[in-house]
Design goal:
globular; binds 5-phosphoarabinonic acid; 432 residues
Length: 432
């Protein structure tokens, strides 16, 4: 299929009976998701979003993106967590590396680094710029600060015309950003109230920046819609997302409490980050959760690879494999053969990379690391949308299997509270 699970390296770690034993729990969790009866049920809007999505809204996003592409060279997306990781992930995977994209989409508001901001301001000097500020709550401090700085820069450069280059993506009625949009006439998009940040990449949160970056957002949504149909069964042997979730929890129960998402494609680094947020923020609560980590191979075979092979045996690995050979870069024949590589002459890098993956999986399994492989047919917008939905659904299932609410993030609040106290925000009396 489009995205499928290959468990040939798992067989020596998990018996089929163990999987059958969790089927009833999977069915119960499936009902929580589909009947909206579990904890956090008010955040299940993502479940059928791709098939319900209003095509007029997609057109409005595309038109806005076209306008921005005509008028600007750089789009700065301001957001943090679920308000930027999805767009960045898909952009990293689908857009060319090495600055080959004509329209630059860059990010701000995901850190408080003065250096980052100063270098960003130097970079945009003399360029035509647009802003897309994204915050569901409209009150998150990091993006609010970045927006204040960059908005001042925009008004300095464009005067009142700046308003036409600022796009707001936020809640329909709530928050400071909605007020700003209403007061200034900024073009705005809505984040549905029933879709949380880390589940929002297929809403305007991800779609607008991605359309500006040149991604085929309709294909992305279509891929998710296909996954929605394919991953609707309550039977975990007919639902790859549920099977993946079940494997994770079976392994976790056995003390494999760290999952390493491994990819042999460097363009996957953004998806790694998005995936870590999705699973980390959804499952890491009540003293539970699988710690999500990630690697990019071959790079990390010469780094964390040593730990994977011989370190503490508390981790399992999920490898992502892209099956189709889309790029034909070949290793040339060399008369001298000084490097001894003629045995590889005429092979594509893809072929060699695939063997690097098989070799790594075999080595890690031998070293005691359970390995599960997610096979993706090819890299394009459709398959990326499919893969995103696969993970969203697997994450909801996995969190319910472990008995936590997949959709809240109570633990993100304490640092904010402390920061406000330390910075003297009005209304926050000092505890520290
Ligand atoms: O997944 C989540 O809900 C969070 O990571 C939020 O996306 C993040 O905290 C940013 O929130 P907001 O969009 O309200 O600024």
């Amino acid at each position: 299929g489009t995205v499928s699970l290959n468990d040939k390296y798992l067989n020596q770690f998990i018996e089929k009976d163990e999987v059958i034993a969790v089927q009833d729990f999977v069915k119960a969790a499936h009902r929580k998701i589909h009947e909206k009866s579990g904890a956090g049920a008010e955040y299940l809007g993502w479940l059928d979003w791709a098939t319900q999505l209003d095509k007029d809204e997609v057109s409005r996003i595309e038109e806005t993106a076209q306008k921005l592409r005509r008028e600007a060279e750089v789009l700065i997306v301001i957001g943090i967590g679920g308000s930027y990781l999805g767009a960045k992930a898909v952009q990293d995977l689908l857009c060319p590396s090495f600055g080959l994209n004509k329209m630059e989409v860059i990010y701000a508001g995901q850190n408080l680094s003065g250096r980052y901001m100063e270098e960003l301001l130097s970079f945009i000097e003399g360029k035509e710029v647009a802003l897309n500020v994204i915050s569901k709550s409209g009150t998150t401090t990091e993006p609010a600060i970045a927006f204040r700085v960059l908005r001042a820069w925009m008004y300095e450069k464009y005067g009142e015309q700046a308003a036409e280059r600022i796009i707001v993506t936020t809640d329909k009625t709530e928050g400071a950003l909605r007020k700003a949009a209403d007061a200034t006439g900024y073009t705005s998009f809505e984040i549905p109230p029933d879709i949380g940040g880390r589940y929002s990449v297929l809403t305007a949160v991800g779609l607008l920046p991605l359309a500006v970056a040149g991604v085929d957002i309709r294909a992305l949504v279509d891929g998710a819609a296909q996954a929605e149909k394919d991953l609707a069964s309550e039977d975990l042997f007919e639902n790859a997302a549920y099977l993946y979730a079940a494997y994770r929890q079976i392994l976790n129960a056995r003390g494999y409490s760290i999952e390493v998402l491994a990819s042999f494609e460097p363009a996957m680094s953004g998806i790694n980050e998005w995936w870590k947020q999705l699973f980390g923020e959804s499952e890491g609560k009540q003293g539970k959760g699988i710690f999500p980590a990630s690697v990019i191979y071959s790079t990390d075979l010469h780094s964390l690879g040593q730990y994977l092979q011989n370190g503490r045996r508390t981790l399992f690995e999920t490898m992502i494999s892209f099956k189709e050979e889309q790029y034909q870069s070949r290793i040339p024949f060399d008369q001298e053969n000084g490097d001894g590589l003629n045995y590889l002459a005429d092979k594509t890098l893809h072929e060699v990379n695939q063997q690097a993956m098989n070799a790594t999986a075999l080595a890690h399994v031998e070293g005691g690391v359970p390995v599960v492989t997610i096979e993706v047919e090819r890299v394009d917008a459709f398959h990326t949308g499919y893969l995103i939905y696969f993970f969203l659904k697997a994450c909801a299932m996995s969190a319910y299997l472990s008995g936590v609410n997949p959709f809240d993030q109570p633990g993100v609040e304490l640092y904010k509270q402390n920061m406000f106290e330390l910075l003297g925000k009005p209304g926050y009396e000092k505890k520290i």
